[in-house]
């Protein structure tokens, strides 16, 4: 948790004020048993009605002032806790956004979601309760012991036995629960992952009638989570009954000892009641402290998990180059292997793409087409060989520069909630003329004109109110509006008909900014007019050249073309 304390630096005033007002409240609370003892000894037993009224007014005043102090402390602690969680969540999200794809793959999306949501909430609750109770509870406990000694030293010795026993009990259970709460959060991540997979792939599961099988898998993981939570709950549930047992035994001993002292005339009835009230205050505060410790245990476990993500250093660093006049791309004997993969996804790939050329990449599913273009945009780094831009290793360029000059249209068209204009601009300052030009090049004019609000037409989350082809054309427009030097179309026209696909390719070739275009496709007709065509098979280049050259000298390409020829002609 201490690693996250820096996010509280802007709330120093609140972190001081909250415990301070809680201590003031505790001081007024510790005065109440003495007032009650005075009511009994000097008011009720002496039949002094005026004294009873005066003490009653004093009790009301103590309660009112204590209430104001408690509310004030709650305000400051809540302000600090909410601000702390907002800053931690923002820092965590920003850090995750800065991590490259290999690190995101290693950590896992479900874990990141759990840590940004559930773990941050746990840490927020821990900060809130800590500021309110971390000083108040010990102060009341030890203050009650001291006040008991001022009432009667012999009876107060019972407090000296009770408090250490309670302390040992509380901390023993706390130490036992710390690793268990970590296990709970780990199992929660597994359940979150299963839920996310089922929701994203709901249509696939229904298409293949896998609902029952997935329900069984979810039930198994959910049962495992419940088992760990029950076991942890049983241990933490021992806290309250054990503390209550120790305190009640202490109260019994206190009343017995007090009765003897009253009979001897060494102690008044009001003082016995005051001692009893102090013992109950200790019980109440220790129960609060027990709950605080449980919450702090959870918060500490969650804070540790958050700190683990924040401590992850990006495995890929950007270079210092921020410009170049040469946008030729060269692959020099490039190989790439995914983490924990048994075999390389790419092996010995070499080719050159000159500025303004169109490079087609074709091959069977799993041949490494998407992996190749991801090395160009530097989502991943080559494990062997190198990729160069303008004769310089692409790793020497600044990330921001590369992202500005390279536009990628991924396989899965992703639209965000907002408007068509916001989705096409995607943070790029562009006027409507530039936006409409990009939409026209992407063959998406009919989408905008067919909507009542035009560019202001709302887009639902994931673009669910658009068809697959419409989503693809809008994501292509999003790439074209940037006017990039390098354009990567990663199988981004699979939902388009042949006529629209051909018109799109013609418009891209006619772009005034003439980007170097990489077209990844399984359609021969989508790449046959490219300047160069790269044919991949099992991660290796088995063909490189023009369409006619490959038909004559590359059996793999000829086979792909022959299998699709009738469809292309149609």
Outline:
The chain is of the alpha/beta class and 570 residues long.
Structure overview:
With 570 residues, the protein is α/β, with parallel strands linked by helices. It folds into 2 domains: 2-310, Up-down Bundle (ABC transporter transmembrane region fold), CATH 1.20.1560.10; 329-569, 3-Layer(aba) Sandwich (Rossmann fold), CATH 3.40.50. It has 20 helices and 12 strands. Strands 6-9-10-3-11-12 form a 6-stranded mixed sheet, with helices on both faces. A 4-stranded antiparallel sheet has the order 2-1-4-5, with helices on one face. A hairpin with a 2-residue loop joins strand 4 and strand 5 (392-393). The longest helix is centred in the N-terminal third of the chain and has 50 residues, at 49-98. It is elongated, with a radius of gyration of 35 Å. The chain starts with 11 loop residues before the first helix and ends with a helix. 36% of the residues are buried.
């Amino acid at each position: 948790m201490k690693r996250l304390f820096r996010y509280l630096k802007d709330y120093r005033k609140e972190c001081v004020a909250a415990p301070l007002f809680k201590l003031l409240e505790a001081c007024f609370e510790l005065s109440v048993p003495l007032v009650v003892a005075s009511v009994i000894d000097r008011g009720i037993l002496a039949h002094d009605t005026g004294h009873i009224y005066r003490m009653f007014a004093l009790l009301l005043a103590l309660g009112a002032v204590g209430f104001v102090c408690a509310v004030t402390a709650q305000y400051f602690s809540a302000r600090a806790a909410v601000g702390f969680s907002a800053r931690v969540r923002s820092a965590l999200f920003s850090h995750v956004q800065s991590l490259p794809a290999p690190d995101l793959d290693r950590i896992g999306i479900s874990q990141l979601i759990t840590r940004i949501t559930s773990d941050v909430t746990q840490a927020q609750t821990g900060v809130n309760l800590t500021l309110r109770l971390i000083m108040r509870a010990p102060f009341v406990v030890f203050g009650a012991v001291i006040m008991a000694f001022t009432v009667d030293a012999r009876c107060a010795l019972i407090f000296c036995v009770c408090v250490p026993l309670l302390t040992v009990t509380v901390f023993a259970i706390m130490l036992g629960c710390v690793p268990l709460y970590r296990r709970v959060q780990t199992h929660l991540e597994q359940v979150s992952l299963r839920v996310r997979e089922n929701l994203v792939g709901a249509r696939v599961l229904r298409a293949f009638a896998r609902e029952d099988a997935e329900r069984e898998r979810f039930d198994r993981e959910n049962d495992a989570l419940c088992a760990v939570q029950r076991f942890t709950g049983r241990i933490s549930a021992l806290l309250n009954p054990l503390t209550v047992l120790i305190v009640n035994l202490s109260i019994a001993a206190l009343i017995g000892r007090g009765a003897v002292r009253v009979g001897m005339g060494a102690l008044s009835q009001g003082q016995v009641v005051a001692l009893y009230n102090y013992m109950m205050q200790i019980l109440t505060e220790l129960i609060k402290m027990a709950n605080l410790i449980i919450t702090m245990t959870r918060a500490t476990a969650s804070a540790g998990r958050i700190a683990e993500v924040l401590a992850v250093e990006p495995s890929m660093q950007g270079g210092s180059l921020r410009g170049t006049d040469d946008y030729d791309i060269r692959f020099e004997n490039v190989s790439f292997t995914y983490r924990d993969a048994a075999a390389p996804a790419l092996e010995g790939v070499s080719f050159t793409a000159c500025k303004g050329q169109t490079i087609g990449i074709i091959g069977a599913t799993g041949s490494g087409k998407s992996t190749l273009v991801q090395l160009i945009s530097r989502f991943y780094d080559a494990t062997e060989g190198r990729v160069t831009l303008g004769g310089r290793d692409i790793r020497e360029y600044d990330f921001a520069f590369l992202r500005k000059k390279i536009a990628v249209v991924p396989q899965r068209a992703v639209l965000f909630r907002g408007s068509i204009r916001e989705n096409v601009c995607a943070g790029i300052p562009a006027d409507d003329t530039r936006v409409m030009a990009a939409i026209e090049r992407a063959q998406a004019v009919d989408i905008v004109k067919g909507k009542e609000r035009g560019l202001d037409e709302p887009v639902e989350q994931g673009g669910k109110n658009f068809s697959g082809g419409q989503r693809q054309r809008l994501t292509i427009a999003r790439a074209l509006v940037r006017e990039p030097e390098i354009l990567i179309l990663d199988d981004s026209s699979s939902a388009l008909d042949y006529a629209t696909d051909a018109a799109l390719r013609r418009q891209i070739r006619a772009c005034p900014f003439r980007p170097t275009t990489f077209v990844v496709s399984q359609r021969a007709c989508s790449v046959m007019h490219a300047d160069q065509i790269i044919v991949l098979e099992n991660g290796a280049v088995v063909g490189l050249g023009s369409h006619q050259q490959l038909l004559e000298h590359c059996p793999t390409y000829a086979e792909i073309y022959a299998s699709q020829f009738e469809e292309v002609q149609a």
